């Protein structure tokens, strides 16, 4: 493989490993805010026990997430220096704000929160977790604003003399509608993941009649919260799909394996794309005009097909299509599970099959988020900044062998950290609240 593909694989590996930790941090911080606010208002020690138990898991995840995230920004200099030279004036400002404002606020107050249980009053301690949750979710905002510029570049001009893009309107970059749609979808997905994490851990203990009251109350609290989030997440995905149709129509065509431009385009429930022959080998159960309506809210709308674009501008069609369809299928599973959990949450004996399903479901939201980001990033190819700079022009002039060696190094180290995270989360989740208090 050449240096471009190796650099892409290295960045993908580090981002995906890092994103094992990010969504749970974002989502669990909000749940901790909810629980500790109840404790701060009522003084009920039960909620303090809840916060301490889930807070231990949050801290494990946060710590390893910080470790895996440090290397990401360095790759813009080591692997993607030409990209940094070309759009660093815009991209760099967003990353700088994330690091100097959101991350430092988050890391400072998580320490105060962790060590301040016996040193701060209930309300002052609760303020700390509020600040941690706000900072962590704001940190994600600045990162996604940077990604949003790559997906839909705005607020810049090309300086031909300097040979780079330069920032002209910071407000346009910050209020980029495409980026805010991405942010909403990512945050909702992260909060939903955390809801299913709490449901899965609670279900494991309920199956074993372990700390039944503790975990039943957590289950009862989180089930409707997760259901609401899963439904809103689906609507958010629909809106982001419309943004893709407006700004990246070739990505939409790949997501749907849509080859020929036309109006009143049907949506096929079962499709098997055949990019080599520029067609679909299977198209079953087409719903008339549905794709036109999904993309543009108009059943008569024209949807551009892949054949309207040069093949050099196509993303990898099969990969984008299957990642998108798999993500949607998992989203339907999540709504069904959350609905069943909400329906059964007040029962003394919740259906064992549902509890087992929730336990086995724990890794699926992670997979779904990874699939979603695969659609976003692979679907943007061959552009690193859509319509402005190709990925092949953005890579650093370094030997492919050097990137290959560092890629394997990252995979080994990050695999160890990933295994450690899963081991520690499983260990302390299984031990239950009594071990935490001890």
How would you describe this structure to a colleague?
A hairpin with a 4-residue loop joins strand 4 (267-274) and strand 5 (279-287). 72% of the residues lie in helices and 8% in strands. The strands form four sheets. It has a two-stranded antiparallel sheet. The radius of gyration is 23 Å and the shape is globular. With 438 residues, it is mainly alpha-helical.
Shape: globular
Question: How would you state the average pLDDT, rounded?
Answer: 86
Decide which structural class fits the backbone.
mainly alpha
**Count of DSSP H/I helices:** 14
The major sheet is characterized as: 2 strands, antiparallel
**Rg estimate, integer Å:** 23 Å
C-alpha end-to-end distance: 52 Å
How helical, in percent, are the residues?
A: over 70%
- Percentage of residues in DSSP E strands: 5-15%
**What are the low-pLDDT stretches, counting only 5+ consecutive residues below 50?**
none
- Tell how many strands the DSSP assignment holds: 8
What is the H/E order?
HHHHHEEHHHHEEEHEHHHEEH
Task: Write out the strand line-up for the largest beta sheet, numbering strands in chain order.
Answer: 1-2
Summarize the structure.
With 438 residues, the protein is mostly helical.
Q: Which helices and strands, and how do they pair?
A:
Elements: H1 3-18, H2 22-42, H3 45-78, H4 81-115, H5 122-151, E1 156-159, E2 164-167, H6 170-174, H7 177-207, H8 212-247, H9 249-255, E3 262-263, E4 267-274, E5 279-287, H10 290-296, E6 302-303, H11 317-344, H12 352-361, H13 363-378, E7 383-385, E8 389-390, H14 400-437
Antiparallel strand pairs: 1-2, 3-6, 4-5, 7-8
Helix pairs in contact: 1-3, 1-14, 2-3, 2-5, 2-7, 3-4, 3-14, 4-5, 5-7, 7-8, 7-12, 8-9, 8-11, 9-11, 11-12, 11-13
């Amino acid at each position: 493989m050449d240096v471009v593909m190796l650099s892409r694989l290295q960045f993908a590996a580090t981002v995906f490993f890092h994103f094992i930790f990010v969504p749970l941090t974002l989502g669990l911080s909000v749940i901790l805010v909810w629980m500790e606010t109840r404790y701060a208002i009522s003084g009920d020690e039960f909620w303090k026990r809840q916060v301490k138990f889930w807070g231990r898991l949050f801290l494990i995840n946060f710590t390893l997430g910080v470790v895996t995230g440090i290397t990401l920004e360095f790759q813009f200099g080591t692997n993607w220096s030409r990209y940094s030279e070309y759009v660093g004036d815009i991209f760099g400002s967003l990353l700088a704000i994330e690091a100097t404002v959101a991350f430092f606020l988050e890391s400072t107050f998580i320490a105060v929160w962790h060590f301040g249980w016996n040193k701060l009053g209930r309300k002052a301690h609760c303020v700390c977790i509020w600040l941690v949750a706000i900072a962590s979710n704001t940190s994600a905002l600045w990162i996604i604003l940077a990604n949003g510029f790559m997906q839909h570049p705005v607020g810049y001009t090309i300086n031909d003399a300097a040979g780079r893009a330069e920032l002209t309107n910071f407000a346009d970059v910050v209020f980029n509608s495409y980026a805010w749609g991405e942010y909403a979808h990512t945050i909702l997905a992260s909060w939903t993941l955390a809801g299913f994490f709490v449901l899965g851990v609670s279900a494991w203990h309920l199956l074993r009649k372990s700390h039944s009251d503790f975990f039943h109350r957590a289950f009862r609290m989180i089930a409707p919260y997760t259901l609401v989030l899963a439904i809103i997440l689906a609507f958010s995905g629909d809106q982001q799909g419309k943004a893709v149709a407006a700004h990246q129509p070739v990505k939409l065509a790949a997501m749907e394996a849509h080859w020929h431009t036309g109006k009143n385009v049907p949506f096929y429930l079962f499709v098997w794309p055949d990019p080599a022959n520029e067609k679909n080998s299977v198209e079953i159960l087409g719903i008339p005009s549905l794709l036109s309506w999904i993309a543009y809210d108009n059943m008569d709308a024209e949807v551009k097909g892949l054949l309207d674009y040069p093949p050099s501008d196509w993303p990898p069609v099969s990969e984008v299509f299957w990642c998108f369809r798999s993500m949607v299928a998992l989203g339907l599973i999540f709504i069904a599970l959350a609905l069943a959990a909400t329906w059964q949450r007040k029962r003394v004996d919740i259906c064992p099959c549902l509890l087992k399903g929730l336990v086995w479901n724990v890794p699926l939201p992670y997979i779904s988020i990874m699939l979603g980001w695969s659609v976003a990033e692979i679907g943007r190819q061959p552009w690193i900044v859509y319509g402005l700079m190709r990925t092949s022009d953005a890579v650093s002039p370094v030997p492919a062998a050097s990137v290959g060696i560092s890629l394997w190094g990252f995979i080994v180290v990050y695999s160890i950290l990933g295994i450690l995270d899963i081991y520690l989360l499983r260990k302390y989740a299984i031990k239950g609240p009594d071990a935490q208090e001890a």
